[in-house]
Amino acid sequence: MSLVMDFAGKAVVVVGGTSGINRGVAEQFAAHGAKVAVASRRQDKVDDTVAALKAAGAAEAMGFTCDVRDIDSVRAGLEQVHQAFGDFDVLVSGAAGNFPALAADMSANAFKSVIDIDLMGTFHVMNAAYPLLKRPGASIINISAPQAWIPMQAQSHVCAAKAGVDMITRTLSMEWGEEGVRINSVVPGPIDGTEGMERLAGTEELREMTRKSVPLQRLGQKSDIANICMFLGSDLASYVSGTVIPVDGAWSHAGLGGISDSLAKFARAQK
Fold first, then answer.
1. How far apart are CA 88 and CA 138, in angstroms?
2. Domain total for the chain?
3. Does residue 2 surpass a pLDDT of 80?
4. How far apart are CA 7 and CA 231, in angstroms?
5. Cα–Cα distances in Å, from 10 out to 133, 137, 146, 153, 220?
6. Burial 53-82 (b: 16+ CB within 10 A, else e)
7. 204-213 helix and 259-269 helix, angle to the nearest 10 degrees
8. Residue 1 in this model has a pLDDT that exceeds 60
9. Within-domain flag for 110
10. If we measure between CA atoms, which residue out of 152, 253, 258 comes closest to residue 205?
11. Is it the case that residue 220 has pLDDT exceeding 80?
């Protein structure tokens, strides 16, 4: 069966869309004709990504700099996109921070930094984007992580933050559902060629161990996450809202393949 995704004329915003998984998502929407905007803290990364989006086939492409911890900068950037593109059809919120650290060795500021980026950042994006969404029909996609429901050593900050992100997804699906706005979380597994993969499996030994721990016996690709985001952003998913969708080759069911112990050993070795 052949299926063609057409996002021509659609306004897509990817916060955190200048690197890794999120850039892959932005480029996929661009390749299918969308008007795509990205946001990042660094102007050089924004400029590079906007050029790549145009080359990929975006109807229009733009970007802005912001820090998701600062709601005023998020709001100003999103309003700039709204003036150019109109109401948002798809909003992807993917800004995140992570580092391995045991709770007993972590400062309060270190813990707070991840809460501020992952959890408060998600709230800021949701809150600032709310009046700019297409009604009915907007689709919001939060990029979460398996730490949201799987406890992992050296990740207490991320576990707490991502659990909060998924509860924002579930709650807003109820609050905004009557306006025709859908919201879902996507949970990537180990995705090749990303900073997250480098943090979790920085050696070839850990990389191979991770690959073998995935029931499908392969690492994910950025396109795997982009494809689910396109599905959620399309009319094919018009009755899908409030869900948390793992895209991980069943990795989470297999217990993440010992990554928790590996992170704990790494964190202890840094003491």
1. 7
2. 1
3. no
4. 11
5. 12, 11, 30, 41, 27
6. beebebbbbbbbbbbbbebebbbebbeebb
7. 160
8. no
9. yes
10. 258
11. yes
The pLDDT of 188-197, averaged and rounded, is: 88
CA separation (Å) from 213 to 122, 135, 151, 254? Answer: 30, 42, 17, 7
Q: Is 5 contained in some domain? A: no
Q: Please check the confidence at residue 104 and state whether its pLDDT lies above 80.
A: yes
Helix locations, the chain, DSSP H: 20-31, 43-56, 71-85, 108-114, 121-129, 156-175, 195-200, 204-213, 222-233, 259-269
**pLDDT at residue number 134:** 98
Over residues 3-20, the pLDDT tens digits come to 778 999 999 999 999 999
- In the chain, what's the furthest Cα-to-Cα distance? 55
Q: What is the pLDDT of residues 42-94, one digit of tens each?
A: 999 999 999 999 999 999 999 999 999 999 999 999 999 999 999 999 999 99
Question: Residue 188 is inside which H or E element, if any?
Answer: strand 182-188
**Full domain range(s) for residue 229:** 11-269
For tokens 């979460």, name the residue: 144
Whole-number Å distance between alpha carbons of 216 and 186: 18
Output the average pLDDT for the chain: 93
> What's the CATH code of the domain at 140?
3.40.50.720
pLDDT category at 198 given cuts 50, 70, 90 is confident
Q: Which amino acid is at 9?
A: G
| Residue at 125: amino acid letter | V
CA-to-CA distance for 17 and 150, rounded, in angstroms?
26
Report the distance separating Cα 25 and Cα 32, nearest Å.
11
Is 2 contained in some domain?
no
Residue 1 lies in a domain: no
Give the model's pLDDT for residue 125: 98
Q: Phi-psi region for residue 9, left (φ > 0), alpha (ψ -120 to 50) or beta?
A: left
